[in-house]
UniProtKB/TrEMBL annotation:
Gene3D superfamilies: Glycosidases (3.20.20.80). Pfam families: Glyco_hydro_1. InterPro entries: GH, GH_1_N_CS, Glyco_hydro_1, Glyco_hydro_1_AS. Belongs to the glycosyl hydrolase 1 family. It comes from Amycolatopsis pigmentata. Its EC number is 3.2.1.21. Keywords: Glycosidase, Hydrolase. This is beta-glucosidase. PANTHER family: GLYCOSYL HYDROLASE (PTHR10353), LP05116P (PTHR10353:SF36). SUPFAM superfamilies: (Trans)glycosidases.
């Protein structure tokens, strides 16, 4: 009797994902300008061990051999991001042709290998000159992003099938401008919320430009189902969901910010209230950062929604014991870790069923939901090269298997999921954690830059070849 198989739909995209600052290195090569992550990681105490992305995986020099890793895996898609300061070192103005040519070669190399390029325009590396003018907290960055999009679309628009405008605007805004744990390292609630809105406005400005290319257009959000730790924490869990999920889903898919969160932020000093924030106002709540027409543009139809899923969020009522928590301004809610659940090296609970829960919720709550790509899913564990020269990462295999089975359940429940991109192709610079956390299918020995296939790479390659999991 053969084993049952959990196969994905025909034409399902199997991929791996990376981000420019995390792998490229060569931060001053060929005219690249500084980004906010160059500045932030050079700040004492900002990143574990003082690590920076100056060398990272040296992918800018080793890109061809790294594309061969993708061929070895058998993936049909590769999600990567462009470094804005490599293309427009000042954020606007003169184009750096050497940087643009690098990405032309990268896209061509993928197409030669029959791998679909999925290009992310912004994965957190804002050019530092734009941050010097206020960064995402100022509307001027919207026009700069539109200009950047025009340059990229003209150069690559005929060869990129999938465009992602932004990666995880929640992190860029609430963690970069709210908690200070990511670049640019600011701790200001109002600036975080304004940055979130301006990021969505930049996405809106990019969509019609990318519509003129031959590719499909989407955005990637990091989403997490929220659970109350006790029945008394239900309202806190709703607020956490409003901050982390609905604050971005609602404007994109409904054309409005969630009114309960606007009232909460206005009442807690997060944003200056404008018409409608306050008790019993009959019209929609709004805040001063939103201009006429913004939400109409933000909610323009998408070809797909990218979803990054890593863990579920468990919530208790009360002030966050960590004063620098990324959910500023205070929500009278904070995240906890249940004692009975396994954890990754990042301290995140391993809950594959949360992915199925999230997918089904999206289909239920958002009638305008477009098709979905899982643009990131993976885990960090304590990987090492064993005496036989291999990396036996069985924990990662179990993690990926559980999440792919959960995704299969969601598809069988009617959720339109078109592809899955494992995070990450290789170990890399893990932002504030530096090089202390390894997410890759390939182990990177940083002193020598040698890549070693982990056991998970071989397992994932078999999953791709079968278009699913054989139990």
């Amino acid at each position: 009797m053969t084993n049952p198989a959990k196969l994905m739909p025909e034409g399902f995209t199997w991929g791996a994902a990376t981000a420019s600052y995390q792998i490229e290195g060569s931060v001053t090569a060929d005219g690249r300008g500084p980004s906010i992550w160059d500045t932030f990681s050079a700040t004492p105490g900002a990143v574990r061990h003082g690590d920076t992305g100056a060398i990272a995986c040296d992918n800018y020099q080793r890109w061809e051999s790294d594309l061969d890793l993708l061929t070895d895996l058998g993936v049909t898609g590769y999600r990567f991001s462009l470094a804005w300061p490599r293309i427009l070192p000042e954020g606007t103005g003169e184009v750096n042709q050497a940087g643009l040519d690098h990405y032309r070669r990268l896209v061509d190399g993928l197409l030669e290998r029959n791998i679909t390029p999925a290009v992310t325009l912004y994965h957190w590396d804002l050019p530092q000159p734009l941050q010097d003018k206020g960064g995402w907290a100022e509307r001027l960055v919207i026009d700069a992003f539109a200009r950047y999009t025009e340059v990229v679309a003209e150069a690559l628009g005929d060869r990129v099938p999938l465009w992602i405008t932004l990666n995880e605007p929640w992190v860029s805004s609430f963690v970069g401008y709210g908690s200070g744990r990511h670049a640019p390292g600011l701790t200001d609630g109002p600036s975080a919320l304004l940055a979130a809105h301006h990021l969505l406005c930049a996405h809106a400005a990019a969509v019609p430009i990318l519509r003129q290319t031959s590719g499909q257009v989407g955005i990637t959000l990091n989403l997490t189902p929220t659970r109350a730790a006790t029945p008394d924490d239900e309202e806190a869990a709703v607020r956490m969901d409003g901050c982390h999920n609905r604050w971005f889903l609602d404007p994109l898919l409904r054309g409005e910010y969630p009114e309960d969160m606007l009232r909460w932020y206005g009442g807690s000093g997060g944003l200056p209230p404008a018409g409608g924030v306050g008790g019993g106002a009959p019209h929609k709540a709004q805040f001063d950062g939103v201009l006429d027409g913004d939400l109409e543009k933000i909610s323009a139809p998408l070809d797909f929604l990218g979803v990054n899923y890593y863990t579920r969020t468990w919530v208790r009522t009360g002030d966050d014991p960590d004063a620098r928590h990324p959910l500023r301004p205070s929500l009278d809610a904070h995240q906890i870790r249940p004692d009975n659940l396994p954890l990754t090296q990042m301290g995140w609970t391993v809950e594959p069923d949360g992915l199925e829960e999230l997918m089904v919720r999206l289909k239920r709550d958002y009638p305008a939901l477009p098709p979905i790509y899982i643009t990131e899913n993976g885990a960090a564990f304590d990987d090492y090269i064993d005496p036989e020269g291999g990396v036996d990462d069985e924990e990662r295999i179990d993690f990926l298997k559980g999440h792919l089975l959960a995704l299969h359940n969601a598809i069988e429940a009617g959720v339109d999921v078109r592809g899955y991109f494992c995070w990450s192709l290789m170990d890399n610079f893990e932002w504030g954690e530096g090089y202390a956390r390894r997410f890759g299918l390939y182990f990177v020995d940083y002193p020598t830059q040698r890549r070693v296939a982990k056991a998970s790479a071989g397992w994932y390659s078999q999953v791709i070849a079968r278009n699913g999991i054989v139990l």
